[in-house]
Amino acid sequence: MPDGLTFLLVFIALVVIYTIAKVVGYMRQSDRQWDQVDKSKLKEWNDDDEW
After folding, report:
1. Of 28, 19, 25, which Cα lies nearest the Cα of 11?
2. Separation of alpha carbons 32 and 2, rounded Å
3. What angle is formed at CA 20 by the lines to CA 9 and CA 7, rounded to 5 degrees?
4. In whole angstroms, what is the distance from residue 37 CA to residue 44 CA?
5. d(CA 17, CA 23)
6. How far apart are CA 39 and CA 14, in angstroms?
7. Statement: the pTM of the whole predicted model exceeds 0.70
8. Separation of alpha carbons 25 and 16, rounded Å
9. CA Rg, the chain, in Å?
């Protein structure tokens, strides 16, 4: 394999791993924030309501 191709594949793999790690981190942060919400103040939402 040419050296340039190897470097490119390693770079792409690192970007994919970094992106997945960020998404998982944001999902965990979102779950923590949702657990802290005062759910008694949430409004019942019906998507079937007519305008």
Report:
1. 19
2. 46
3. 15
4. 15
5. 10
6. 39
7. no
8. 14
9. 21
Tell me: the pLDDT tens digits for 24-43?
999 999 999 999 998 888 88
Distance between CA 28 and CA 34 in Å, rounded? 10
The label of the residue with tokens 């994919």 reads 16
Amino acid 30 reads: S
User: CA 12, CA 4: separation in Å to the nearest integer?
Assistant: 12
Length of the chain in terms of residues written: 51
| Structure token digits, residue 31 | 């779950």
Number of H helices, E strands in the chain: 1, 0
